[in-house]
Structures are given as C-alpha cells and as structure tokens.
Fold this sequence. Notes:
This protein is an alpha+beta fold. The chain is built from 7 helices and 18 strands. Strands 1, 2, 3, 4, 5, 6, 7, 8 and 18 form a 9-stranded antiparallel sheet that branches. Strands 9-10-11-12-15-16 form a 6-stranded mixed barrel.
Amino acid sequence: MHNNMKEIDWANLSFGYMKTDYNVRINFRNGAWGELEVSSEEHLNLHMAATCLHYGQEAFEGLKAFRGKDGKVRIFRLEENAARLQSTCQGILMAELPTERFKEAILKVVKLNERFIPPYETGASLYIRPLLIGTSAQVGVHPADEYMFVVFVTPVGPYFKGGFSTNPYVIIREFDRAAPHGTGIYKVGGNYAASLRANKKAHDLGYSCEFYLDAKEKKYIDECGAANFFGIKDNTYITPKSSSILPSITNKSLMQLAEDMGIKVERRPIPEEELETFEEAGACGTAAVISPIQRIDDLENGKSYVISKDGKPGPICTKLYNKLRGIQYGDEPDTHGWVTIVE
C-alpha cells in the first residue's frame, strides 16, 4: 500500500498497472443488476466454466480522470464510454449496463482512489478500466445468464515522455485485426489478441505500431494498432469509414473540434495510395490523444509515405492535441459538455 503518497514518482509513471485502494463491482443475476459493491481485493473468484473464459464474452472500456489546475477532478466523456459498452453488449449478447449505473460506478471508484489521481503539473492522469464479463458456467456455446461489471483504476504517465513527437508506422498485410461485419466495431478482448502478432512484428522491425488495411480488399486504410487513423489535407480532417473499426471517442471528439476550428471533416474509405497526399496524419485514442505519424512504410511494395517532412508534428495536429488536452484538464472551456466534474 502506498501509505505515504510521496513514494509515487508522478513524473515517471509508465502506462502500467499499479495497485490502488479499491475497485467496484456490480453483479447481474436473475435478470437484474444488483447493488454497487466496493472491494479492495484485486482477484476475481470465477467459475472455471465461465463464458468469459471459453467463449470470449468479455468487453472493456478505457477512460481517464484528470486533476485540473483548480484542483477539480474531471472525467472525459464517460457517457460515450457507457454507450459504447452497451453497443458491445448488443454485439456479443451480454446484459447491458444502463448509463446511470456505469456513471455511478465510475464516480465511486474515482472518489475512492482520489489519492492516486496525479497532480496537475505532472501531465499524468488516472486511467479507468471498466470490465464486463460473463460469469455463469456454460459448456454449450450460449450467452451467460450472469455477468460481473468491475472497474479498477491506476495512475498512468503522459504517453509522450519526451514531449509530443512523431512516430514511424508500418503496413502489415499478413494479419487482419478484424473482418468487415465481425467484432472490430466492439471493444472485446479478442480483437486485441488478434493484433498481438502484427504488433510484435512492427515493434521487432523498429516501428511504433502496425497499420491494418481492410480485411476484404486490402486496399483501404483501416486501423492503426489499437487506435483510429486520421489524415489532414486541404484544411480537411479525413478518417476512415469502415465496418471493422472501433468507434474511437477520441476521434469523435477531434472531428468535433476540427469542425469548431473551421476544418472540414470527411468520413470515407481511404485508399492506401492517398497516404501520399496527406500534409499531416495521426493515430488517435485514449492513451495518447494523438500520436502524430512521421511516416508509414509499406515494406511489401517497397514504398514509404513520408507524412512529416521535417519530422515534427504538424500545426493542425498540434492545435487539436492541445485543445483536447486543455478541455480534459480544465484549461479550455468545455463548450460541448464533455466533462463530468467529480464532486
């Protein structure tokens, strides 16, 4: 236990797990969600035949709480995470957790672990991980009739240790993360398991992350590792439209901010060769907000799409990144009502 908070080196936190004081749980039994329970136990007592272990009835979310200069704690767009979890539940036939219950659990777990929310100056935040699993014993392939919703938190460092910078990416054709009309639009563990080999290959080759083309035609840019892609040209923010991409809440937010800044927004298929025409590009998600792309290599075709000619993040990416982080930390006005202040 970190009894003395001075033990935590806030400036050097990684994106990893650190034990905190409490987690919260809600069980679904006999067709209804029960009371919120608070636990300090890090383990789950699971039946060995639970559907989450055998048939992948497992969904998760990721969101963050930020401490502002004013000392207030802000959680970014939690209703969107609740809605996405409900969509995943529909996709893999799990009991849906209502938004109010999701919100109750998130606020409770953040308040209980308030001493782990990093100070404003550190650029660190409190990562919140909701998890929903099928818990009843089942041997036939059917949905469970009992579920457990668990939320734990852990402080995480800023994604960019050395400041906001560009990274190299690589297109990998030999593996697909998800198929059109498969589970790519849901936040289920299986999609991440499906990305591990390609991700390892990209890292072994010296790249920050892997890029997937659409599984059907291998012609269009789909997703980048565990993040959404966007490109910028002619004052337009362009992001793929595809039936196998996770709807990123960060991407949705960036599209809105781009519109606010007078930048056009297009959601459409992006053929690989269009990569040559982008002035800026990025991968976006909860962890990094935006990871600007330096270049994207297509090794099989011996091509390199250099996006950032000077190796630095472009002006629009930088503006969007600063604006979104500003809203999250309370330094910019929250004109869209995205932030929930923890009272």
